[in-house]
Design a protein that fits this description.
- This protein is an alpha+beta fold.
- It has a domain of about 100 residues.
- The protein has 8 helices and 8 strands.
- The strands form 2 sheets. The chain has a 6-stranded mixed sheet with strand order 3-4-8-7-6-5, with helices on both faces. A two-stranded antiparallel ribbon has the order 1-2.
- The termini are far apart.
- About 0% of the residues have low confidence.
């Protein structure tokens, strides 16, 4: 099974979720996501499709992804941009790209100052600063952190059953649980994470306390604190 997620970068809450068979191409589910006009979508090279690029542009949806190493293109125009290696307008010239009516795109070259690794990003957004385009793709790492969180905290690293129904049930229960935890984090004080909320709930399962009280504890009353019960650190 393969889980496809459209993660809202502002709230870190999944807005689009689809489950497919493992061997199925990522693009099949990716094309089904109906992104709102004005959205900026970041995805990896598994979703490369020139025809889809044109479709997103017609819908008013911007995208940022990485250029494939074997892509054939020509540089139409070069811009002077700060914070990146280069900023260019390009056209794909391969027969495959022309057959799929590949749109004119923007190529941004960026070298990570920490790892010194070179990246090449393509986008259909010609208005944002080149450094912003690079930062948008960097934020795609939030998707990896999301999958890490649900695997560690919501018990979908291993499945209880091997049938399609068992796997689907376990995945959807995990997604529902994550949404409830995300809502609880929204209602809690600042500084709470999904993992912290989950640990507190697990420790308080047999206590009759309101959720609001658990997530927004009142300050400790020192007069009610027995000195004899203190544990020295």
């Amino acid at each position: 099974m393969k889980l496809h997620v459209g993660l809202n970068n502002a709230s870190l809450i999944p807005e689009f979720v689809a489950v497919s068979d493992g061997p199925e191409n990522d693009l099949i589910k990716g094309r089904e996501f109906n992104f709102p006009k004005g959205s900026i979508v970041a995805f990896d090279k598994g979703y490369v499709d020139y025809n889809w690029y044109g479709s997103l542009s017609k819908q008013g949806v911007s995208f940022v992804t990485r250029l494939r190493p074997n892509a054939v293109y020509k540089v139409v125009k070069t811009h002077q941009s700060v914070g990146v290696d280069y900023d260019q307008n390009i056209e794909f010239t391969s027969a495959h790209a022309q057959k799929q009516n590949a749109p004119k795109l923007r190529l941004v070259g960026f070298t990570c100052p920490e790892t010194h690794r070179e990246y090449r990003f393509i986008t259909n957004n010609f208005k944002l600063a080149a450094s912003t385009i690079a930062a948008i793709y960097k934020d795609r790492w939030q998707v990896e952190l999301f999958f890490k969180a649900i695997k560690q905290n919501l018990k979908i690293k291993a499945f209880l059953g091997s049938s399609r129904n068992a796997v689907m049930t376990q995945i959807w229960i995990a997604m529902i649980s994550y949404l409830l935890l995300a809502y609880a984090r929204h209602c809690a004080q600042k500084g709470w994470t999904v993992q912290r909320i989950l640990r507190v709930l697990q420790m308080s399962l047999f206590e009759r306390r309101p959720l609001k009280e658990l997530l927004n504890p009142s300050p400790l009353d020192k007069r009610k604190w027995d000195p004899q019960m203190r544990i020295p650190l």
